[in-house]
Amino acid sequence: MGYTIAQKIIKEHLISGEMTVGSEISLKIDQTLTQDATGTMAYLEFEAMELDRVKTERSVAYIDHNTLQSGFENADDHRYIQSVAEKHGIYFSRPGNGICHQVHLERFGKPSKTLIGSDSHTPTGGGIGMLAMGAGGLDVAVAMGGGAYYITMPKMYKVNLTGRLKPFVTAKDISLEILRILSVKGGVGAIIEWGGEGIKYLSVPERATITNMGTELGATTSIFPSDEVTREFLKSEGREQDYIPLSSDEDAVYDKVIDINLDELKPLIACPHSPDNVVTVESLKGTKVDQVCIGSCTNSSLLDMLKVAALLKGKTIKPTVSLSISPGSKQVLTMLSDCGALSDILASGARLLECACGPCIGMGFSPNSAGVSLRTFNRNFEGRSGTADAGVYLVSPETAVAAALTGEITDPRLLGTMPKVKMPKKFKINDTAVIPPAPVSCADSIKVLRGPNIKPFPKSRPQEDTLKAQVALKVGDNITTDHIMPAGAKILPYRSNIPFLSQFCFGVCDKTFPERALKLGQSIVVGGSNYGQGSSREHAALVPMYLGVRVVIAKSFARIHIANLINAGIMPLTFQNPDDYDKISQDDTLVLNDIFAGMDSGSITLTDKTNGNTATLVCNFTDRQKKILKAGGLLAFTKEN
Ligand code: MIC
Ligand code: SF4
What we know:
Blueprint: H1 5-13, E1 14-16, E2 24-27, E3 31-35, H2 36-48, E4 58-62, H3 72-88, E5 91-93, H4 100-107, E6 114-117, E7 131-134, H5 137-144, E8 149-152, E9 155-162, H6 171-182, E10 190-195, H7 204-213, E11 221-223, H8 228-236, E12 256-261, E13 268-270, E14 278-280, E15 291-294, H9 302-312, E16 322-325, H10 330-338, H11 341-347, E17 351-352, E18 372-375, E19 391-394, H12 397-406, E20 434-435, H13 440-443, E21 467-474, H14 481-484, H15 498-501, H16 513-520, E22 523-526, H17 539-546, E23 549-554, H18 559-567, E24 571-575, E25 589-592, H19 595-601, E26 603-608, E27 614-618, H20 623-631, H21 634-640
Parallel strand pairs: 3-4, 3-6, 4-5, 6-7, 9-10, 9-12, 10-11, 15-16, 15-18, 16-17, 18-19, 21-22, 22-23, 23-24
Antiparallel strand pairs: 1-2, 2-8, 5-20, 13-14, 21-25, 24-27, 25-26, 26-27
Helix pairs in contact: 2-3, 2-5, 6-7, 9-11, 9-12, 20-21
């Protein structure tokens, strides 16, 4: 039996475990990336391991999320990350150099390598044939220290593309189509390989749009073959030497195969508040639009920006629409400016934002109240834009421009003929904004600079054999990490200050939660299916841990979040019978007895002291996970060992 692309890379990097679906495997990690919103914590964790240098082939620290510097906090964190990077062998990408995933693709990614990043959209690297996965900061810290990365061996899905995209139908529409087909839970436990005749017409940035948004499927990662298209891209980045061909074997076996005919695809749009809430753009025709944002790690490549410029050229946006453009990297911005396309964008009335995440993570540019915002981004979770009652829709850059020009949701195919966009053969390379680490010989003399916003890592507690605690919160299905630990301009600067952050925990669901949880001392959270989807932020586990949450019981969990919970020493348990979810109410007192024996047998019995009901909870932990929980989290476990 042959291998899929992902299986080939896994085989090459396998440290332990068997490549059978569902078993725990550990992988050697070649490259890591961090961004600042998760990076401060990741580097504090790396420092706690007391290692001198990173052991990876390449580790890069990006500053792209918290770039507003509305107080000293961000600037201090940037300085901390820069000094820690210099000391420990990590490349530092300065604020303004671009969004981690875009820059990594341009300058560092390599086909057939493994990459983990403390950001859930790390699978963007799958666009050039990397096995790239999002992970919690602590897992990234361990990988930087040379430790293995543990995952559950995923199923293999294949998406076959036939035909060719019609004008005004784009890679973003392919991403939305697969979300329509599979939903935000449909990729859980799987790696999605893209293939078929149709991929040869998709450039690397287009492929990266698709692998980037594969995160919204809950997939472990998504991957394209490394082929002539990949070679051309690497060549234009002056990195042809990094190219190696990579494809699946003819007789590779897939657990699911999905066919998409590109000839038939139409412009699509994801409606509030979920990326899988997908309909055709034409079905929403005429909906008034207040704001349009073009950028984010999904759609901020030079190709995206050149198309936007060509469509805006000589036109003026509607006075009722506010349009922002954030190019993905300094390279994109420079080339856009050099060829004159930036002037076409600015002349149309658009606002130019920094090459950073910006509005995608609510760092400014929040919509007006009850506003309709069309964004080329990947997430439209409730409240994420910073305006609680805004309606955020996800679209392609072409659909975004059509809305900016007409003031309403408009099928971009009505814009006429798609102008020809010529991509340069060579990209402008200037790496001055990437600072290499100090040589080993000078590392000792480098002082790590810490600001007052960096507070000590919260103390975790080992799991005990019995737990009696109240349900401090009961929530529904598809709770995102943006619900658990919101971001945005007001909160994001405090990512290294867990006590401060904790005031906002679950703020979208119930503002009284932090105070009640603290008062209880220890508590339980009950959730529905796909609990913890979205971001990789370990703060969505560390903050509940700080507030005393000992156990989360849900119908099912998202991959990165379940790992973050275990790393934080919080026990994630699932209902054997999902109907038992309905029998528990918020404020009930639950008792879990014989937890250690249950960890070994695979199930724990819950007794609801308030109503007398019982339920069986599943706990399929590996030996390693049991030890981590008993130690009170991965950091405590790593220190013990
Ligand atoms: C996101 O898109 O939600 C983020 C912000 O990039 C997060 C990381 C974070 O919360 O810092 C992610 O996707 O992992
Ligand atoms: Fe940044 Fe948005 Fe991409 Fe997250 S999804 S890395 S916030 S641009």
